[in-house]
Specification:
Helix content is 51%, strand content 0%. With 113 residues, the chain is an all-alpha fold. The protein has a domain at 2-71.
Length: 113
């Protein structure tokens, strides 16, 4: 069950990213300049309508409208660099290694009497 959910989540992510790529191409932008959340909202809103359209010309017109809506979700330009440095995670703690015990004698076995 979890495997199916993971596959569907990946498929949904890839669908949004492909719409983002197509919308960016249409708007002459880099794909990362578009908001993922905005494109995801546009896709989730338009998907039921696209699924019910049977005419190919009507579907293409609706898809072009979706790309235009997605292309409007442009992120603002950053005017200056961050005021704080990027945080870098530390190396982390090291755990003690297991100590090897010498070879066990036959009397150390659990079933010995």
């Amino acid at each position: 069950m979890a495997e199916k959910e993971l596959l569907l989540a990946i498929a949904g992510y890839n669908l949004v990213r492909s719409v983002q790529m197509a919308a960016a191409r249409k708007a002459n932008l880099e794909p990362r300049r578009l908001s993922f959340s905005r494109v995801q909202a546009v896709v989730m809103t338009a998907l039921p309508r696209l699924a019910t359209i049977t005419d190919a010309a009507e579907w293409e017109a609706e898809y072009q409208r979706v790309l235009r809506w997605a292309g409007q979700g442009k992120l603002p330009n950053r005017t200056r660099r961050r005021s704080y440095p990027r945080a870098v995670w530390g190396k982390g703690a090291t755990f003690p290694k297991h100590k090897c015990k010498g070879p066990s004698s036959p009397n150390d076995e659990k079933g010995a009497k």
